[in-house]
C-alpha cells in the first residue's frame, strides 16, 4: 500500500491554472498533489551572443524554491549562492523544453521560463517541466496571435514524471514519503508523441533490473500521457 493510498500506476491529482500573473506573456500554477510550482514565460527580442545573427530562437529556464517550500526554512539562494542542484535542474528544464521546439520557426528571440516552487512534496523538477511547457505554449500563442511568428514553433508537448521502486514495487509519480525511501528513483522526460527526451535513474539503496526499468518506462508513458492531457485542457487545445 502506498502512503497516499494511490494505485501503483496512479498520478497524484493534477491541476493547471493559467493566467495567474499579470505581466508575464505566459503563466500557470501547476499542482501535482502537494507539489505546487508557479511557472512564467517571458519573451525577449534578443538571443544569447552565441546565437546572434543565426536566425535561431532559444528557450532557457531558471528554477528556485521559496524558503518555506519545504518542512524547514531554507535560506534564499540569492543570499547564499546558487546550489549545484538548482543549476542542474534549470538546465534540465531548458533542454527539455527545447526538445519540443522548432528554433527556426521561433525566430531570433528568447523565451525564459521561470519555475518557482511554492510548496514541495517530491517531483518538483517534473512539475516544473510540465508547467513550464504550458507557460511556454501561452507565450507562443501570443506571438502567433500577433503574427510575429507564422508557423507554430512548438512541435510537440513536453512533460515529465517520476517513477521508482518503492517497497519492492514499481510506482508512478513519487511523493516525498516515497521518494525519500525509494530503492530506485527515476525522472522521465517525454514528448506528447511518446518519444524520450531524458531519463535520470539511479539506485538509491538497491540495484534494479532491466525488467524493472522497462516497467518504470511503461509507467512513465502512462503518466506523461495523463499530464499531456492536462496540459491540453489547460491551454484549450
From TrEMBL:
This is Ribonuclease PH. Belongs to the RNase PH family. GO terms for molecular function: 3'-5'-RNA exonuclease activity; tRNA binding; tRNA nucleotidyltransferase activity. Gene3D superfamilies: GHMP Kinase, N-terminal domain (3.30.230.70). It comes from Meridianimarinicoccus roseus. It catalyses: tRNA(n+1) + phosphate = tRNA(n) + a ribonucleoside 5'-diphosphate. Phosphate binds at residues 85, 123-125. Transmembrane segments: none annotated. GO terms for biological process: rRNA 3'-end processing; rRNA catabolic process; tRNA processing. Homohexameric ring arranged as a trimer of dimers.
